[in-house]
């Protein structure tokens, strides 16, 4: 991919949710399985539907209505990275796109659904915490005048992806640890939350976006001096959240 890209090794990572797997890697200690998206986001975006194919990038793809993510170059095979910077000089083949989906996208989502099914069978419900990071500039204008910018943005697609009781518990865990939290602005949840959030079926999905500025140097894509402290603080949050999925909560939708 690097050989076919016009970007250097650093720029091509600008959309990456860097080090998020390390921030949450203690989850199995508390009984919650951890599924890592190992494929680079610029290579294949697992938080997009497999049919969000970009005709401006992939040979042989027909235009089908208007999809704002695809139109902006952020389909399942991205055409651009952060700030609209093009990844390739030209197009890629349909074979290349299909190979990426079959090798990475489908196995990941098959595994994810299997983990959710297992959780429902074992605990009566499943709670999916979909972890991402966000550029600091994305939240700079969200806070009211004089208030702190949110460090955590929870997305439940405005209540469609998770029961209010679940989201309340997740939010309380972050707030009690000292994080500034908002919901659904500027990120309400993308494909994973939309596809897997089925609260009426006891399957809840909450997207978690973490401000990159609190744990990493965004320009160099390196952990900052605060990384270890943030990681330790998140351990208590993760322990609390992991308990939600192991309890049978009296949900209003049931």
Describe this structure in words.
This is N-formylglutamate amidohydrolase. GO terms for molecular function: hydrolase activity. The protein has 254 residues and is an alpha/beta fold. The protein has one domain: Aminopeptidase (3-Layer(aba) Sandwich). The protein is 30% helix and 11% strand. The chain has six helices and six strands, in the order αααββαβαβββα. The protein has helices at 20-23, 68-71, 94-123, 164-176, 191-196, 227-245, and strands at 126-134, 152-155, 181-183, 203-211, 216-217, 222-223. It has a four-stranded mixed β-sheet with strand order 1-4-2-3. A two-stranded antiparallel ribbon has the order 5-6. The longest helix has 30 residues, at 94-123. Residues 250-254 have low confidence and may be disordered.
């Amino acid at each position: 991919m690097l050989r076919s890209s016009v970007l250097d090794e650093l720029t091509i990572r600008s959309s990456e949710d860097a080090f998020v797997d390390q921030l949450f890697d203690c989850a199995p200690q508390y009984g919650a399985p951890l599924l890592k998206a190992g494929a680079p986001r610029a290579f294949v975006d697992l938080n997009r539907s497999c049919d969000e194919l970009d005709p401006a990038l992939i040979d042989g793809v027909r235009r089908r209505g208007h999809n704002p993510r695809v139109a902006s170059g952020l389909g399942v095979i991205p055409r651009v990275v952060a700030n609209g910077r093009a990844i390739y000089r030209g197009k890629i083949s349909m074979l290349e796109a299909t190979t990426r989906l079959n090798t990475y996208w489908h196995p990941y989502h098959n595994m994810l659904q299997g983990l959710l099914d297992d959780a429902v069978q074992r605990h009566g419900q499943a709670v999916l915490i979909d972890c991402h990071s966000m550029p600091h500039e994305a939240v700079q204008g969200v806070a009211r005048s004089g208030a702190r910018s949110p460090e955590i943005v929870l997305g439940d697609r405005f209540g469609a992806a998770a029961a209010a009781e679940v989201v309340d518990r997740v939010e309380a865990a972050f707030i009690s640890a000292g994080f500034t939290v908002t919901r659904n602005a500027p990120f309400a949840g993308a494909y994973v939350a939309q596809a897997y959030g089925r609260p009426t079926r006891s399957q809840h999905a909450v997207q978690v976006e973490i401000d990159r500025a609190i744990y990493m140097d965004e320009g160099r894509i390196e952990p900052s001096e605060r990384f270890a402290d943030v990681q330790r603080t998140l351990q208590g949050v993760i322990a609390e959240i992991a308990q939600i999925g192991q309890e049978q909560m009296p949900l209003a939708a049931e």
